[in-house]
Write a structure and sequence with these properties.
There is one protein chain. The chain is α/β, with parallel strands linked by helices. The strands form two sheets. A five-stranded mixed beta sheet has the order 4-3-5-6-7, covered by helices on one side. A hairpin with a 6-residue loop joins strand 1 and strand 2. The protein has ten helices and seven strands. Helix 3 packs antiparallel against helix 4, helix 4 packs antiparallel against helix 5 and helix 5 packs across helix 6. Helix content is 38%, strand content 12%. The N and C termini lie far apart (65 Å).
Length: 276
């Protein structure tokens, strides 16, 4: 009987929770963070606290609407064909994620809705199938970003090791808040969850879109201090390449030095993958 009462009350409880959520959201307004779309000449808005809700909604803009033509370059179509050739014809939609990645690299770091529609057309699926994937993965940007997309790790180990200091240093150095883009369109400052470098925390990753698809890089910068984080930004601004990986160590090892694998392993060894 008790269970019946609980189940009978679930719809009302759900409605109450939804109403409470809406009231709380309206009672705690969040100032939207503005950022300038590179080379677009106007500012678009994104709410920080409710980005996980707003980011799943598309609103037509002057530079992002279905009526704008978009297609892959001939060179990138060769990459698309190579991706699709890896899968049986009835599973070619499995190439959707690499196709979105190529589209983002070609389009200076973000994916317009017309690019998603083109991918759907190539794969022979409904547009919604591509929207579902593009909105699920945070690595896909659906608004313009800077030429360098700097993402600070915000997961617990990096927090413990001082990622909030890195965030504050970069915000002050770039003159923007997190989720913002510099006025010159060079840098967007964002956040990414755990990227597997906990032993070298804190760290940031930088997606470099300056070289298009051919020159695209996605590099980790680890063992950061506020000074070394600023140095990474300054080096990129000069068009140079910062040291990738740990800024203070040669590998993931204790600060006191290596304590294991002091001699070459006895084997068995992996086959030579040089030409694989």
């Amino acid at each position: 009987m008790a269970l019946r009462r609980v189940f009978s009350q679930l719809p009302a409880l759900a409605r109450g929770a939804a109403i409470s959520t809406v009231r709380n959201a309206s009672a705690s307004p969040v100032a939207p963070t503005g950022f300038r779309a590179p080379s677009m000449g106007f500012t678009s808005q994104q709410s920080r606290s409710y980005a996980h809700v707003i980011i799943n909604q598309h609103r037509d803009t002057e530079f992002n609407k279905e009526s704008l033509p978009w297609d892959f370059t001939p060179d990138n179509m060769k990459l698309i064909d190579a991706c699709m050739a890896k899968y049986p014809a009835n599973y070619k939609q499995s190439a959707m994620i690499p196709m979105l990645d190529i589209a983002q690299q070609q389009n200076e770091g973000w994916i317009p809705v017309s690019a998603m529609n083109r991918i759907a057309e190539i794969l022979g699926v409904a547009n919604m199938r591509v929207y579902e994937v593009a909105t699920f993965y945070s690595m896909f940007n659906r608004q313009p970003v800077g030429k360098y997309h700097v993402m600070i790790c915000g997961t617990t180990p990096c927090m413990v090791r001082g990622s909030q200091k890195i965030e504050k240093a970069l915000e002050e150095h770039l003159g923007i808040k997190k989720w913002g883009t510099t006025d010159d369109g060079m840098f967007t400052l964002g956040e990414m969850e755990c990227m597997g470098c906990c032993v070298n925390a804190p760290m940031v990753v930088v997606a470099d879109y300056t070289g298009g698809t051919e020159g695209y890089t996605y590099n980790y910068y680890e063992d950061l201090t506020p000074d070394s984080a600023r140095n990474v930004i300054d080096t990129l601004r000069k068009g140079e390449k910062p040291r990738v990986g740990s800024q203070t160590r040669d590998k993931a090892e204790p600060h006191t030095g290596q304590t294991s694998l002091l001699e070459p392993p006895t084997g068995p060894y992996c086959r030579d993958l040089t030409d694989a």
